[in-house]
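Structure in, sequence out. Go:
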C-alpha cells in the first residue's frame, strides 16, 4: 500500500530544520504484515529526543529511514500466526521488540532482548525483514516502529493492547516517555516512600520521572533543568524544589536543600554535564540512575574511591527496566485514576507536514512532548 511518511535520508543536516528539512514527507510503499506481524493505522506519534539524536547524528542509525518510535494506533490487519489481537484493537508501540526466548527475556528483562537490539541496530523488524520501500529500494525501520507515517507494519512483539477509552494521542506517550521515566523510578531505582529524589533534565522522560517520584511517595522531589518554564511545570507536577542547572552553585543549592544530597538522582538529559551534576548531588550510599542517551563516544570520569568509600551505586536504565506487558497497563490505570497525570506533558499537536519545525522546538528546549496526529 502507498502511505505518507517522514523519511530521514541523511543524518547530521544543520538546523534550523524548518529550513533544511532533514525529514522529507514522501509517499512510500508499505508491505502487508508477514508471519507474526501486524499492520497498524497510526493515530498519534510523539516527538522524542531519541528521534532528534538520530537526525543530528548523535545516535547513528542506517539511512534512509522512516523515523518515529513513540506511538499508538489501531490494528488494521493481522499477519499469519497472530491470534491474540483483532482488527480494531487499540495498541501502543514498544520500541524494543522482545523475542521471549533469549537469556535477558527469560530473566524477565525484555528491554535487553538480544534479537530485538540486533534488529533495531540493523533497521529491520524482529524477523529481519524490511517492509518499507521507496521506488523499489528498501527503507530502514526505526526501532521496529517507523511511526512517523500513516501506517506501520510491525512485529506483534512490538505491540501492547490498551483500553480503547484512552485517547490515542495521550496513549502514544506511554510507549516511551512514561515507560522510560516512570520505570526508571519504580523499576530501576525502586524509590521508596519517604526517600529523596532529584531529576536532572526535564524533557518528556524527565518530567515522567518527576511524576514517578511523586507517585512513589518521595518526600522531596528536586527538579533540575536549564529552562525556567520546565522547572515551573515540574513544581506544578509535584516537585518540592527546583534549581536552574546554569547556576554556578547549583550542586551546593541542591545539597543544602536536601541535607547533603538525595538518595536517588536521575539523569535524563543525555549529556555528560548532566550526569556529572546528578552524581554530585547524590548523597553517600545513594544511587545515581541514567536513562539519557548521549553520543556513544561520550564518557564520564567517576572517582573510583567514592564508589567504595561512600558505597555509591551508578545504574543504567533502558525503557525504565520495564516489562511492557506488565507495566504499561498499570501506568495507564494509574493515569485513569488521576495519580499519573501524563496528559500535562503534552505541549502541542501537529500535522506530519509540520514535523521539521517541531523538531526545532524540541532542539531549542521549547517543548516537552509534541505529538503528530493522523
Amino acid at each position: 500500500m502507498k502511505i505518507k511518511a517522514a523519511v530521514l535520508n541523511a543524518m547530521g543536516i544543520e538546523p534550523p530544520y524548518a529550513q533544511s528539512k532533514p525529514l522529507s514527507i514522501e509517499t512510500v510503499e508499505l508491505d502487508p504484515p508477514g508471519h507474526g506481524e501486524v499492520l497498524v493505522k497510526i493515530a498519534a506519534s510523539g516527538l522524542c529526543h531519541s528521534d532528534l539524536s538520530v537526525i543530528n547524528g548523535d545516535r547513528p542509525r542506517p539511512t534512509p529511514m522512516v523515523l518515529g518510535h513513540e506511538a499508538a494506533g489501531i490494528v488494521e490487519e493481522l499477519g499469519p500466526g497472530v491470534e491474540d489481537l483483532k482488527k480494531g484493537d487499540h495498541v501502543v508501540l514498544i520500541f524494543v521488540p522482545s523475542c521471549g526466548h533469549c537469556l535477558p527475556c527469560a530473566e524477565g528483562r525484555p528491554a535487553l532482548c538480544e534479537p530485538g537490539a540486533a534488529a533495531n541496530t540493523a533497521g529491520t523488524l524482529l524477523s529481519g525483514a524490511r517492509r518499507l520501500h521507496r521506488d523499489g529500494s528498501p527503507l530502514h525501520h526505526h526501532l521496529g516502529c517507523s511511526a512517523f507515517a500513516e501506517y506501520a507494519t510491525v512485529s506483534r512483539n512490538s505491540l501492547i493492547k490498551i483500553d480503547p477509552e484512552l485517547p490515542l494521542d495521550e496513549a502514544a506517550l506511554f510507549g516511551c516517555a512514561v515507560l522510560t521515566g516512570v520505570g526508571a523510578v519504580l523499576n530501576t531505582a525502586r524509590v521508596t516512600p519517604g526517600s529523596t529524589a532529584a531529576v536532572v533534565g526535564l524533557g518528556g522522560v524527565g518530567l515522567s520521572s518527576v511524576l514517578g517520584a511523586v507517585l512513589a511517595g518521595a518526600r522531596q522531589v528536586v527538579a533540575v533543568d536549564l529552562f525556567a518554564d520546565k522547572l515551573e511545570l515540574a513544581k506544578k507536577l509535584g516537585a518540592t524544589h527546583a534549581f536552574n542547572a546554569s547556576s554556578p552553585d547549583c550542586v551546593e543549592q541542591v545539597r543544602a536543600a536536601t541535607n547533603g544530597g538525595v538518595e536517588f538522582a536521575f539523569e535524563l538529559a543525555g549529556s555528560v554535564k548532566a550526569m556529572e551534576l546528578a552524581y554530585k548531588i547524590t548523597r553517600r550510599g545513594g544511587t545515581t540512575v541514567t536513562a539519557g542517551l548521549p553520543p556513544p563516544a561520550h564518557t564520564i570520569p567517576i572517582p573510583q574511591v567514592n564508589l567504595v568509600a561512600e558505597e555509591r551505586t551508578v545504574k543504567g536504565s533502558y525503557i525504565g527496566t520495564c516489562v511492557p506487558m506488565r507495566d504499561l497497563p498499570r501506568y495507564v490505570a494509574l493515569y485513569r485514576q488521576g495519580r499519573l497525570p501524563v496528559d500535562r506533558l503534552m505541549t502541542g499537536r501537529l500535522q506530519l507536514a509540520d514535523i521539521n519545525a517541531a523538531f526545532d522546538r524540541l532542539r531549542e528546549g521549547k517543548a516537552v512532548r509534541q505529538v503528530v496526529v493522523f
